[in-house]
Each structure stands twice: as C-alpha cells, then as structure tokens.
C-alpha cells in the first residue's frame, strides 16, 4: 500500500513539474529560537543559517520558475517533525536544510552535504547525532520519535526506508551543491555523505542537509559570519539548485512518462524474448501467453506480452510471464505507441520499486 501511494505521489509531482514548469522548494534554516545550534565566540549557528536561507530564497524568487516555502523566516523554534510536515504539505520537489558544522579540531574546515542513509562511519554518526539533539527540546518527543535512540547507530537503520525512493535525486542535488560551493567560494569540498538526520527522514521528496562550514575554525567562522561569505554561499546553492532542476528536467525519462500518462498516451508491455526467428505471434508459441506483439528490429524480432496502463497490473503480468519460464522478461514503457527512448537515465520497475541505474 505504501508503494502504491508513492507511485501516485511521484506521478502527480512529476506531472506538475513538467506541465506547469513550477519547481517547489522548501528552504529550512536549521535550529532557531531556544535552539541556538552551534555556538562559538558568541556567534550562533541559527543566525547565520537564517541569513543564508533568506538570501537563497530571495534569489530563487526572482525566477517565476521556482516557488519557495520557508520553514522559518525569523528567529523561532520549529520542531523537526514540523519542518518535514511543512515540506510535505507544500508538495515540494526539493527540501534544502542549511546548517553550520563544528569539530573538536580547530583545523577542520570546508563544506559537506548529507542525504539520508546509514552512517558510513563514526564521524557521520556524530554529525547526525549532534543535529538530532534538538528533539529533546520538543514536547512529546518520546511519543513522536519512539524507537529512536540518537546515541545508537543501530536505531537509525529504519530511517532511510522512505527516502530510498529519492536517493538518486538527493545525491544529484547534493553533488551539485558541493561542486558549486567549491568552485565559487574556493573552500574545501568535503563531499556528499549519508547519515541519519531526522529532519530528512520526515520528508517525502528529494532532500539534503548542507553543512556550510565550521564555526569551530576561526577563519571559517569569520567567513560564515560575514555578509560576503553568506552571499557567496547562498549564490552557490542557488546555482546548484538550478543545475539540479535542469538535470531533472532534461534527463529524467520518468518525468516525460508522467506527462504522457496524464494525457493517456502511456502504456506498458512485457518484453519476453528477442530472437532471429520470425515466429507467428500466437499463444501456442509462447507457452499460452496472450496477447503477443511482434516487433521487427533490424534482422531480429522482439516479442511482447500484454498491454496495460496500470503499473500494478503490468507487474502481475510480469510475474506470470516469469512463472511460465520467461525469467529474463522485463517491463517496457511505450509513449504514444512507441517504445520509450532511454537517454542517460534507465528507469525500470522491479520488485514493486522504482530504481535508477546509471550508465
């Protein structure tokens, strides 16, 4: 049932993106109010990230392509749970949370971006743990985050399940942020990482958390606290968001499928075989499967089984074909009567899940 609603959500999200050309972004300034975030030399993380977020929003709002929603625009406390709810209610295409980092080492410097996932190492876990501490300032946190122990890496194993569907998009967005920050601010690129940030777990769309720099490093702290530094960081993130949008629009075959489906021009078939033999398209030649479509490609022939507009129904036909012995069968998308022309993204349905395979 969860997968079914995911398909519905993804279909309408991408249809809206392609038809209206409006890209909805939720900008999240970390911390706020009674939660100052990292504090060094009386400089508060919550103040710096708010200024950066407002600059990002100001630039994006100049372009009618983007619709911006903020989790906060002033110094107030917003629960992690509520931040995700704001993004989900806005039906955002991208969630961007901005933070500042800190380290026991005063030499640590540079920016790093996170997408939701398991902690690859103890350092990633500690970063996520520190950001997740804010739940203790929320009322009813024991009920709301039941089962989460921020001191235990094992308790976060389940955090990434829903965001798995958006992992490729999240990574693509985060990679662009890192490249843009390194190029435009001339500061160290610490890469894209995965960790169990609760604020990302609450969202049902591509999402990333950006650690813009280290307040524990004096030189970087001065940069982060300066108007010049904040503007450079904001402009870099805006550039990355626009780059991500263009990648999504130009390379996502799925968005083209969503538009076709909305117009009733999309359907699916099961490719069960490719052969040099010209076989009559009758059930007796294909273990009783019907209907069969034959397509000539050069000197070979492709054989397809079934035709459905409903994803669940075509998945059932796929399982039937495999039970009949066509173990290599797979789902093929047709748009306006023609087999979809895959470009840099190859989308396929497998095990009731959409996955992306990079060439």
- Give the count of helical stretches: 11
Order of helices and strands: HEEEHEHEEHHHEHEHHHEEEHEEEE
Helical fraction: 25-40%
SSE class:
alpha/beta
Mean pLDDT, to the nearest integer, reads 78
Strand content: 25-35%
The whole-angstrom Rg is 24 Å
Terminal-residue CA separation: 31 Å
Number of strands: 15
Index terms:
disordered C terminus, alpha/beta, 359 residues, five-stranded antiparallel β-sheet, single chain, 25% strand, six-stranded mixed β-sheet
Task: Describe, in plain words, how this protein is organized in 3D.
With 359 residues, the chain is α/β, with parallel strands linked by helices. Helices cover 38% and strands 25% of the residues. The protein contains eleven helices and 15 strands. The protein has helices at residues 2-20, 45-60, 80-89, 122-132, 141-144, 167-185, 198-201, 218-224, 227-251, 253-262, 311-323; strands at residues 23-29, 39-40, 43-44, 66-70, 94-101, 111-116, 189-195, 207-214, 266-275, 292-297, 300-308, 330-335, 338-339, 345-350, 353-358. The strands form four sheets. It has a six-stranded mixed beta sheet with strand order 4-1-5-8-6-7, with helices on both faces. A hairpin with a 2-residue loop joins strand 14 and strand 15. The longest helix has 25 residues, at 227-251. The two termini are 31 Å apart. The model is unreliable at 1-9, 15-20, 119-125, 157-163 and 341-359 (pLDDT under 50).
């Amino acid at each position: 049932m969860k997968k079914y609603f995911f398909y519905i959500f993804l279909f309408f999200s991408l249809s809206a993106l392609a038809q209206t050309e409006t890209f909805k972004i939720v900008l999240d300034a970390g911390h706020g109010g009674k939660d100052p975030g990292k504090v060094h030399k009386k400089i508060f993380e919550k103040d710096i990230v708010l200024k950066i977020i407002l600059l990002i929003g100001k630039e994006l709002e100049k372009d009618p392509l983007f619709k911006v929603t903020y989790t906060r625009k002033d110094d107030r406390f917003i629960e992690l749970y509520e931040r995700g709810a704001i993004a989900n209610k806005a039906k955002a295409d991208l969630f961007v949370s901005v933070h500042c980092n800190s380290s026991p080492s005063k030499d640590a410097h540079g920016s790093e971006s996170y997408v939701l996932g398991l902690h690859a190492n103890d350092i990633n876990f500690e970063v996520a743990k520190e950001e997740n501490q804010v739940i203790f300032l929320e009322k009813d946190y024991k009920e709301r985050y039941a089962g989460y122990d921020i001191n235990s890496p094992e308790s976060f194993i389940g955090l990434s399940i829903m965001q798995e569907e958006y992992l490729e998009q999240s990574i693509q967005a985060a990679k662009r942020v890192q490249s843009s920050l390194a190029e435009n601010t001339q500061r160290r690129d610490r890469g894209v990482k995965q960790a169990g940030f609760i604020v990302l777990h609450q969202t049902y769309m591509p999402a990333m958390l950006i650690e813009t720099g280290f307040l524990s490093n004096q030189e970087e702290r001065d940069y982060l606290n300066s108007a010049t530094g904040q503007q450079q960081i904001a402009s870099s993130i805006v550039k990355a968001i626009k780059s991500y949008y263009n990648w999504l629009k130009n390379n996502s075959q799925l968005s083209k499928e969503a538009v076709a489906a909305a117009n009733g021009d999309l359907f699916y078939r099961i490719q069960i075989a490719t052969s040099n033999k010209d076989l009559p398209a009758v059930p007796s030649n294909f273990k009783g499967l019907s209907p069969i479509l034959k397509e000539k490609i050069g000197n070979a022939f492709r054989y397809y089984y079934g035709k459905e507009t409903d994803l669940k129904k075509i998945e059932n036909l796929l399982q039937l074909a495999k039970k009949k012995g066509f173990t290599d069968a797979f789902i093929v998308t047709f748009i306006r009567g023609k087999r979809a022309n895959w470009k840099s993204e190859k989308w396929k349905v497998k095990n009731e899940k959409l996955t992306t395979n990079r060439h």
